[in-house]
Amino acid sequence: MMKMEEKILKILLNAEDSIKIKVRFNDTDAMGVVHFKNYLIYFDDGFISFMNNIKNPDTIENAVRSGIVFPVKKIEIVYEDSAQFGDYILVKTRIKKIGDKSITFLHDLYREFDNVLLAKVECVRLVMELESKEIINVKKFFTEFV
Amino acid sequence: MSKENEKKIIDTLLSIEDFKEIEVRVDDTDLMSVVHANKYLNYFDDGFISFLTKLNMDCGALHRQGIVFPVRHVEVDFINMATFGDIIIIHTRVLKVGNTSITLAMDLYKNRKSNDSLLVKAKVIRLIMDMNDNKLIKIAEFFNDIL
Lengths: 146, 147
What we know:
Structural class of chain B: alpha+beta
CATH superfamily of chain B: Hotdog Thioesterase
Number of helices of chain B: 4
Largest interface: A-B, 21 and 22 residues
Structural class of chain A: alpha+beta
Helix content of chain A: 25-40%
Shape of chain A: elongated
Order of helices and strands of chain A: HEHHEEEEEEEH
Distance between the termini of chain A: 14 Å
Number of domains of chain A: 1
Oligomer: heterodimer
Distance between the termini of chain B: 13 Å
Strand order of the largest sheet of chain B: 1-4-5-6-3
Mean pLDDT of chain B: 95
CATH topology of chain B: Thiol Ester Dehydrase, Chain A
Radius of gyration of chain A: 16 Å
Number of helices of chain A: 4
Strand content of chain A: 25-35%
Low-confidence stretches of chain A: none
CATH topology of chain A: Thiol Ester Dehydrase, Chain A
Mean pLDDT of chain A: 94
CATH architecture of chain B: Roll
CATH class of chain A: Alpha Beta
Largest sheet of chain A: 5 strands, antiparallel
Low-confidence stretches of chain B: none
Order of helices and strands of chain B: HEHHEEEEEEEH
Shape of chain B: globular
Radius of gyration of chain B: 16 Å
Number of strands of chain B: 8
CATH class of chain B: Alpha Beta
């Protein structure tokens, strides 16, 4: 069991995901650029894509349907540049750290056409059972999920 | 601007705090029945605009002149969850005034301000930019009139 867990953790820590998102008209504000809150929606997409691309037979959508959710505990975002309507954004996702109670994701967001870094994100998530509000052990969850 | 005046402006900014109340909308919540993380960033805007309004600044008019307040950095701790029907109290104060950046502490409470109703603790760094020339405006100069 221990060996299995170590193997899965290694797979997770080496996994990388990239997803392309098109900036919608209503993502922009009167400044003509993507409003800063929308980066949270973009890296939510990055998180979903990451979870569905790590080798597993199940999808995160099914996990959510069965009552497992991934609330955000902490975020830190550094905004380096801005994106505009018509831009494509690449969200690159990997895991920084897996603890017992939380998992820390790193998301780097790039503007696709010139590869300029737009934002760097560190996001700590929990794994929670929606109905009981019980926090689930992250390593145990992934041993079953992956 | 003299060093003395600059210090006065910074001290004044550091002494001001603002409370803004907002009501959670249905579409602020997600399938967990709680306010989604991204919505808190909207609330930070609400708190900051309320803070500026308290200083007799008209954000709409400033915007028409091309003066905007881009966010450079956010750090957010999510402590408790809010849901539809809750009132959120946004407590805004200035933590630090740099040359061209201003750091705000934003504490959000559910329904009333107390230790056990704290929802979110955040630090937001903003710039002040003139979109006409894309240049950053010095914070102390921008707030020159508050004295």
